[in-house]
Amino acid sequence: MDSIHGGSSTQSSQSMAEAKATNARKSHSEAERRRRKRFNVHLSTLRSLIPSTSKTDKATVLSEVVRRVKELKETTATTELGFPEECVFPGESEELTLSHHEGGLVSATICCQDRPALMSDIERAVRSARLRVVRAEMATVGGRTKSIMWLQGGGSAASCGGANEDTVWKLRRELKVVIDKPGSFCA
């Protein structure tokens, strides 16, 4: 009788161990299935972000994404070299600053009371100096506006894209008129 209970106990232990192993395999399989599903969802998103890829196997998609990220990092690094960072929040006082930078760039910083048609007036001033905006940042807070623009010559062969002293002087004069123009409303 003792051997019967002993055998039954051994079988019971083995079946419990097998049940645990089966549950562990199922749990692992489910976790692996969820991981593959997440991976495929992200891969699908990457495929949709890559323009016109003819081959869509995983290795090609990942290779193209790596290439594009490197390209974007390079572009960002190049851009940051040409455009120094400035605080874009408007201050309390009127401000007009023009600075020369490498590559014939001129930065213009304007801080003044916000008003209707301000941006049109700034655009007119930039055009009258025969410059074009290559980058611009603007913030308006509490009725005050600050605009930072990076400008280049209008692209004539003589100017080689840079701005000369006369152009900068004309831009300063035109922007000073914009800043001094009274607003239609009070903040």
In spatial order, strands of the major sheet run 1-2-4-3
The 3D shape can be described as elongated
The ordered string of helix (H) and strand (E) elements is HHEEHEEH
- Count the helices. How many? 4
Share of residues in strands: 15-25%
Question: How would you describe the overall organization of this protein?
Answer:
The protein has helices spanning 2-49, 58-82, 118-128, 165-180, and strands at residues 95-100, 106-113, 131-141, 144-153. A hairpin with a 5-residue loop joins strand 1 and strand 2. 53% of the residues lie in helices and 19% in strands. It has a four-stranded antiparallel beta sheet, covered by helices on one side. It has four helices and four strands. The protein is an alpha+beta fold and 187 residues long.
